[in-house]
Design a protein that fits this description.
mainly beta, 6 strands, about 40% strand, about 10% helix, 6-stranded antiparallel beta barrel
Length: about 120
């Protein structure tokens, strides 16, 4: 009897679980600007004997999504940006709480950390 109850509970849990993972929903966004913040950065650190750090390339990408502008920071070990990411071009965007995901030209997904969100027209 105990085994039958356990099997019943197990079947209920399996039936209640979604059969397919949640589909990722993308919106169409427009790239407003692409900036490389480290190009203008000035270091005030004292020189040390520590080994040189690996280079990480950083790009701040401003994307208009609906009535807002979301700025995401993209970091990579190579200075690579998809060729379709240019100012004024459309891009597939998926927004999370702290991350923005942009689709590349062959459907690959790039994760960017959101550094700011603001309304498109701040004067309203």
């Amino acid at each position: 009897m105990r085994m039958r109850g356990l099997l019943t509970c197990l079947l209920i849990l399996v039936a209640a679980a979604p059969a397919h993972p949640k589909a990722k929903t993308y919106q169409t966004g427009k790239i407003l600007s692409i900036r490389s913040p480290e190009a203008n950065a000035v270091s005030y650190r004292m020189p040390t004997r520590a080994p040189a750090q690996d280079t990480v390339f950083t790009h701040d990408i401003s994307v208009q999504v609906g009535d807002s502008v979301v700025v995401g920071r993209y970091k990579s070990w190579t200075d690579y940006l998809p060729s379709t990411w240019t100012e004024g071009s459309s891009v597939a965007v998926r927004l999370g709480k702290h991350s923005m995901y942009l689709k590349g030209p062959v459907g690959d997904e790039f994760k960017l950390r959101i550094v700011s969100r603001r309304p498109l027209h701040e004067g309203k």
